[in-house]
């Protein structure tokens, strides 16, 4: 409920509960939603101190029927359990690639990248690399503009296989980010093995940065580790100017968060652009 308030999402409105009841499960409602085009992508801008706007993270939204958006925190786990995440993830990848192609036609947006979230189940499909390749080929998107965000749950087991798959996909020109960094367990041991381009400091550390000396120390350490491994380090969940200044003083140079810009549907991207506050 806390997350719901923060993101102005409705978790389970009575109306949605009704939809779910009549469809017997959230899973059935999701399946129905996939067939009815009830999903859309919101895009949240990412900024670097050196280059200004560098791209966006694509974030999935689901609006069942006339009802308000349901948080991905609610439906992604269900989609993962039921296997629906495979179709959903495929749809996300195609939509993001199509957006890249539209951006490629405008000088102002030509160099921007789009990061998409890839679930463990999606990544571990034997044909995942082939699916990335065919999404790029079918749409004509520039592979170097596509970034895949993996969480530690993806890379937890069989590091060798994960590395091999990542390398296959990187050969296409696609880049990788390790999401929610610092929240897992064995981060450091495999960090040096993974062919990454970016690590993303989890927003929980950014959230408590100003009040918790421990979190500040962790952020400082993550930036240093990322730097020494030659990785881009991005902080997400940046909500205040104080956080931004502090992160900058720690030599973090890439940011994402409500302070700079909220996730918006692409139709609002142009108008939102004017309100973004470049760091
Ligand atoms: P995530 O990948 O860690 O995404 C960041 C979340 O933080 C997003 O929540 C975003 O809207 C939110 N956020 C951004 N800036 C701020 C800020 O300044 N303050 C706060 N408090 N929050 C901020 P969202 O969109 O609700 O997504 C939640 C999670 O759902 C994502 O976490 C990701 O794990 C998952 N998800 C979203 N879209 C997809 C998708 O297409 N595929 C998969 N597999 N998972 C997705
Ligand atoms: Ca993410
Ligand atoms: Ca994250
Ligand atoms: Ca997360």
Automatic annotation (TrEMBL):
This is Diguanylate cyclase (GGDEF)-like protein/PAS domain S-box-containing protein. The chain holds residues 617 to 895 of 903 of the full protein. It comes from the Bacteria. Residues 23-277 form the EAL domain. It comes from Silvimonas terrae.
């Amino acid at each position: 409920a806390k997350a719901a308030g923060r993101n102005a999402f409705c978790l389970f409105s009575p109306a949605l509960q009704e939809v779910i009841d009549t469809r017997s499960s959230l899973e059935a409602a999701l399946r129905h939603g996939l067939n009815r085009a009830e999903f859309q992508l919101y895009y949240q801008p990412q900024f670097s101190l050196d280059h200004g706007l560098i791209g966006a993270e694509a974030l999935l939204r689901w609006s069942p029927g006339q009802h308000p958006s349901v948080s991905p925190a609610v439906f992604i786990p269900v989609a993962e359990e039921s296997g629906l995440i495979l179709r959903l993830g495929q749809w996300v990848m195609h939509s993001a690639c199509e957006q890249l192609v539209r951006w490629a036609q405008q000088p102002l947006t030509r160099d921007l990248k789009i990061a998409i979230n890839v679930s463990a189940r999606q990544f571990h499909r034997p044909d995942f690399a082939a699916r990335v390749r065919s999404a790029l080929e079918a749409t004509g998107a520039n592979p170097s503009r596509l970034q895949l965000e993996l969480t530690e749950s993806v890379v937890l087991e069989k590091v060798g296989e994960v590395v091999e798959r990542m390398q296959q996909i990187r050969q296409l020109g696609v880049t990788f980010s390790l999401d929610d960094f610092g929240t897992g367990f064995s981060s450091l041991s495999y960090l040096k093995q993974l062919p990454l381009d970016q690590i993303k400091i989890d927003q929980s550390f950014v959230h408590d940065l100003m009040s918790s000396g421990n979190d500040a120390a962790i952020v400082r350490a993550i930036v240093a580790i990322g730097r020494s491994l030659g990785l881009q380090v991005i902080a997400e969940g940046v909500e205040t100017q104080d956080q931004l200044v502090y992160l900058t003083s720690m030599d973090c140079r890439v940011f994402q968060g409500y302070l700079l810009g909220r996730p918006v549907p692409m139709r609002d991207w142009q108008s939102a652009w004017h309100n973004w506050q470049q760091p």
